[in-house]
Structure formats: structure tokens, C-alpha cells
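User: Can you predict the 3D structure for this chain?
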Amino acid sequence: MHCSCQYVVIHADEWTSILSAITALNSSLADYIEPDFGLLHALLHLDVLTGRQVDDVSSERTAFRRNDALLDLLTSAEQCFKFLIALQQTGQQHVVNFITQKGGQKHN
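Assistant: Here is the predicted structure, written as C-alpha cells:
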């Protein structure tokens, strides 16, 4: 499968800002993320989550609860950066845009 999407370039010095944005937008993000269909596998592959954590997140009954459980595991700037990569890899560029634009509060 080929993705023709444009990737957001985020430098290491911006990672903390991404962590802050994800923390601030936590409750809203659960409405937009599609946790199934590859995201958890991508996070495992990128060493963001362990196999046990993927199993724990997957065991939640609803997508909203899976998203809440997933977001609770993102505690470092590096994890959040890799989370954006996984979102892009799974066709969720709209979520990346939501995060990098701080929920629509950042204007170009």
C-alpha cells in the first residue's frame, strides 16, 4: 500500500511541544483516533508500546476506551513523536494535523 500523504516534519526540539499538545487535547483526541486497523501494530513496531500494552489496550470494549488507554501510555516526547509517525502510517493525517495545530488554536 502506498501513501501519497505529506508527512509533517517535526524536529527533536519540538517533541516536548507535541507531548504538551497531546496532553492538553487528550479528551478530544479520543473522538478522532482510529485505534484499530493498524495503529496499535505500528506503535508496537516503532517501540512505543510493548506487546503486553497492545494486548491491554486491545482488550478495552470500545474504541473510545482503547483510545483513552492508549493516550495514557504516551508519557514521553519521543513516544508522542513516534505516535504521530504511526498515525501518518495508518492514514490518520487529520489527527496529526489536529495535534500539530493544537486543536485548531495554532494559526499559520
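The chain has one domain: 12-104. The chain has seven helices and no strands.
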